[in-house]
Amino acid sequence: MRYILASGSPRRKELLAKVIAEFEVIPAVSEENCDEVEPDKIVEELSLKKASEIFHKNLTESRQGLVVIGADTVVSYNHRVLGKPAGSQEAFEMVKMLQGRTHSVFTGVTLFFVDNNETKHVTFSECTKVHVSAMTDEEIQEYADSGEPLDKAGAYGIQGQFGKYITGIDGDYYNVVGLPVARLYQELKANHLL
């Protein structure tokens, strides 16, 4: 099997290594436009677009044995989807909204592959509830100014400095980091892709 991760995220790369020993990284470059409005459907659509782009760009003579994995993560609170903040001010506003409350993190994953000479794909999403402690404006500002929130959905990384404000989670920790490892493993096994 030849595996390609259609994401440049260093966190996803680390997590995928827990499931697959050897894989290539070819990040999708298309714009992340989406017609869906529900968080689980948004991440599923975006993961499908990423995996499809790389699968169809990969001009090998035969795609037999090729598995492309696309993923996308969003944070959702109070029916609002939070992507990556544009700057520290937006990061401050996002974290302010999340502090002292519980929110949801959704990661969508798509597997593109060939089975009996037929192109197929499997798309799924996972949801994890994240509980954040109350934070002072000073703590929020310090975190927003650290630079850490800028490339992360919802303006935080659970595995980084923000971890000290997480009081608990319900669901898969790795899903919050960016890839639901256990579910991915099960889907790869179920589709005979390991």
Would you spell out the secondary-structure blueprint of this structure?
Blueprint: E1 2-5, H1 10-16, E2 24-25, H2 39-57, E3 66-77, E4 80-82, H3 88-98, E5 102-115, E6 118-132, H4 137-145, E7 166-170, H5 173-177, H6 181-190
Parallel strand pairs: 1-2, 1-3
Antiparallel strand pairs: 3-4, 3-5, 5-6, 6-7
Helix pairs in contact: 3-4
Q: Can you put this structure into words, describing what you see?
A:
The chain is an alpha/beta fold and 194 residues long. The protein has a single domain, classed as Maf protein (Alpha-Beta Complex), CATH 3.90.950. It is 31% helix and 28% strand. It contains six helices and seven strands, in the order E-H-E-H-E-E-H-E-E-H-E-H-H. The protein has helices at 10-16, 39-57, 88-98, 137-145, 173-177, 181-190, and strands at residues 2-5, 24-25, 66-77, 80-82, 102-115, 118-132, 166-170. Strands 1, 2, 3, 4, 5, 6 and 7 form a seven-stranded mixed β-sheet that branches. A hairpin with a 2-residue loop joins strand 5 (102-115) and strand 6. Helix 3 packs across helix 4 (137-145). The longest helix is centred in the first third of the chain and has 19 residues, at 39-57. It is elongated and about 55 Å long. The mean pLDDT is 94.
